[in-house]
């Protein structure tokens, strides 16, 4: 017997994104409750792409608010372009009495004001300062905000499906967490990773994939690495192997194109010092003979 009725079980995944049953459940609970879905997980586990998948799977428009260290919550609601108004008053013949023409809605404000339900991705919220999530609490609760310059209240027409990603660089406030549905994306095991790979490369040769996954997970088990290779790096590596015509029996011996997997100099240094049998790939890059 299914857990959810048809209205509740809206998101079923998309053709280009492999979502686990718990992840799909978390998405649907978030939609049903009208709460933001807070997604955490290792880099490369598909946190950002989840929002794209939801938008595609539900046939909705996607708005993306990319958070930086300097981002303020106000910018997500609206920005009053005082510089443009000043320039128009000094150099143009434009009527500047209508302040509304200088009010530009941010991504959050746009998601409130649009005439259809959208998917809003607030990407890497933990990059902002500590007060950023707290500054959004009222808007997340009442789904409305006030623009004092125009004495206008923007109220949501259709509550957006809100996906918030975090790399856990900073702890988020408890008050913010209480307003969210939470899901941690576990790193895929070999079987799950095979499924992901086949979504992107349906014609990948079986033995090539088998050997590539063996090396990939061996690298991920090296505790000394500062940055372990992720799903996106595996996909790049597989593409390089296929384009380079590398035989499957050479992968574990040489690990060609190691730079697509390891992205930090210290990891390359450890890799080269820990394993012997150096060789060169077709591009002249120094690789090592891998020992299991």
List keywords for this structure.
13 helices, disordered C terminus, two-stranded antiparallel ribbon, Rossmann fold, 2 domains, 15% strand, 292 residues, 11 strands, 5-stranded parallel β-sheet, alpha/beta
Oligomer: single chain
Q: Give the C-alpha Rg.
A: 24 Å
Number of helices: 13
What do we call the CATH topology of the largest domain?
Rossmann fold
H/E order of the elements? HEHEHEHEHEHHEEEHEHHHHHEE
> Quick one: biggest sheet?
5 strands, parallel
- Tally of separate domains: 2
The overall average pLDDT, rounded, is 87
Distance separating the two termini: 45 Å
Architecture overview:
With 292 residues, the chain is α/β, with parallel strands linked by helices. The protein has 13 helices and eleven strands. It has helices at residues 21-33, 47-57, 73-77, 82-91, 107-113, 132-135, 137-142, 174-177, 190-200, 206-220, 231-244, 248-254, 265-274; strands spanning 37-41, 62-66, 78-80, 103-105, 119-123, 144-147, 152-155, 161-166, 181-185, 279-280, 286-287. A five-stranded parallel sheet has the order 2-5-8-1-9, with helices on both faces. Helix 10 packs parallel to helix 12. The protein is elongated and about 70 Å long. The model is unreliable at 276-292 (pLDDT under 50).
